[in-house]
Amino acid sequence: MPGQQEYTREEVATHNTESSCWIIIDNVVYDVTKFLDLHPGGAGVIMDMAGKDATDDFYNLHRQEHLLKYSKRLQIGTIAGQKPEIIVTGPGDISKVPYAEANYWQGHRSTYYNDSHKAFRVVLRKFYDEEIIPEALVSEELGKVPSPELFRKMGDFGLLAAAVGPGPHLQGQNLPGGLKPEEMDFFHEQIMHEESARIGCPGFSDGLGAGLMIGLPPIFNFGSYEMQQKIIPEVLSGRKRICLAITEPFAGSDVARIKTTAKLSPDGKHYIVNGTKKWITNGVFCDYFSTAVRTPKGITMLLIERSEGLETKPIKTSYSPAAGTSYITFENVKVPVENILGKEGQGFQVIMYNFNHERWAICCSVIRASRLIVEECFKWANQRKIFGKRLIDQPVIRAKLAHMIANVEAIQNWLENITYQMTQMSYKEQSRALAGPIALLKLQCTRVSHMVSDEACQIFGGRAITKTGMGRLIEQFQRTNKFGAILGGSEEIMADLGVRQAMKDFPNARL
Ligand code: HEM
How far is CA 203 from CA 293, 316, 323, in A? Predict the structure, then answer.
């Protein structure tokens, strides 16, 4: 086997010409002769390193994924007597970089997590690494929405069911790693959102689950029995897709201003829906739309199936088209009256019902996405050499990292506390006691992500504004971190809600 052959450094040094060009990276010998003309950075830069150890130069310019992609083709052996020094992360692995994972996963104690959570993370991470990341990277680049095959794979694996969280709606559902539906709790769900954010493709991740996570709860909380029997299995198996359609060109946070109307047909059997919706995540490829409309009795929620008169167009956003963000027009769309969700005129209650859960899920994602950026910065600061030193040897860079780490750790710990409260409280109690804390946590999460993005940009320099290469995740994070600060309630609304909720319980206290 050529890949297992051992060489001395002296032997490698003799292969320093264009007709035989070898290089060493870590303890591995690569024959890059045939690759010279294919190398995106040009042949000359590799020729400068021909026959030499190119480890530092390679890692100054490339992500490890490039090496892994080509290693099978180019690797011819290893250096005799030398063991690998650089860690190669495999599918499902937990990172060993400090603060790259919440501390429990790196061996600390926790009162929150148990073996079931641990096992759940292992199977999820492996699935994300092996099944989702390869398609995510290509789709993000090409601007493609997730394939129907991937949805089906996720459905079969139980990932779509895990994305909507614990509850009676999971009865009979298959969950990842054989987790029993009655054993699933909010920590499992937190892990699911974290693993999705960890892949570093926020447009694609939202393409896979954002519509479902907010579009299906109105069905299982307010839909008729018949509707639930049909829609839940279709959607959780990945055969059909659903999203939530509330916001309009006329109404964002001010839901009460929506203009889309639903009028009863003369025979009373259908609602006839007319209007528009904007910023609807996943709308481009969805089959079902949990939609807010205006009827004579007020705001009402309807389940609308893609049908004649319903058109979806992609909206170009600052993240990738993989999220399927859409503008929707309804022109005389006929919706059976049985498709009502809850009662006529009580749509606001349906909309509000899942808000805390949605905001909490956004917190899980934002924290994990920020943590990924901390990991990137920590690695980069250790490998990048400038002015004869590593970046990490500069106090100003250590100060930036300290600030990022301290903030991410603080919000992680607050999140875990809130998740724990959710596992202990009824839904009613959660709505009363946690709406304020979740709103404030979301505010804090997006403030931290803003700071993390800014500091990461300074640490990565020009690479942070380059879509491919070393700083690709930083560039992507800068474009997308504002989503969390707007979706599910803007920072301003979160701040106000948090304090107003606290005022509800304010005692008659004086200074
Ligand atoms: C197994 C060996 C190598 C492989 C598989 C490889 C692969 C690649 C790939 C895929 C890119 C494009 C990266 C991107 O757009 O993000 C690239 C760029 C580049 N490579 Fe390599 N490379 C190898 C060795 C080297 C060596 C030894 C050098 C010289 C020290 C080098 C210098 C460069 C440079 C200067 C660029 C352009 C970087 C930039 O745009 O900032 N490469 N290489």
Answer: 27, 12, 5
Instruction: Give the position of tokens 């749509």.
Output: 347
Ligand 1 centre distance from Cα of residue 70 (Å): 11
Tell me how far CA of residue 45 lies from CA of 9, 23, 48, 56, 466, in angstroms.
Answer: 20, 12, 5, 14, 20
> How far, in Å, from the CA of 134 to the mean position of ligand 1?
20
Strand ordering across the sheet containing 5-7: 5-7, 75-79, 28-31, 20-25, 16-17
* Protein residue closest via CA to atom 16 of ligand 1: 469
Residue-level pLDDT at 1:
46
The domains of the chain, with CATH numbers, are 2-79 (3.10.120.10), 103-236 (1.10.540.10), 242-350 (2.40.110.10), 354-504 (1.20.140.10)
CA 7 to chain centre: 43
Q: Is residue 39 in contact with ligand 1, taking CB distance under 6 Å?
A: yes
- What is the Å distance from ligand 1's center to 46 Cα? 8
For 388-425, b where at least 16 C-beta lie within 10 A, e where not — what string?
eeebbeeeebeebbeebbebbbebbebbbebbebbeee
* Residue 54 near ligand 1, beta carbon < 6 Å: yes
Q: What is the ipTM of this complex?
A: 0.95
- Ligand 1 atom closest to the Cα of residue 470 is 16
Q: Count of CB atoms within 10 A of residue 509's CB?
A: 5
Average pLDDT in the 122-136 region?
Answer: 96
Q: Is there an atom of ligand 1 within 6 Å of 369 CB?
A: no
* DSSP conformational letter for 179: -
Q: How far is the CA of 321 from the centre of ligand 1 (A)?
A: 28
- Tens of pLDDT along 3-22? 679 999 999 999 999 999 99
Sequence-distant (6+) residues with CB within 8 A of 506 are none
Cβ(52) – ligand 1 distance below 6 Å? no
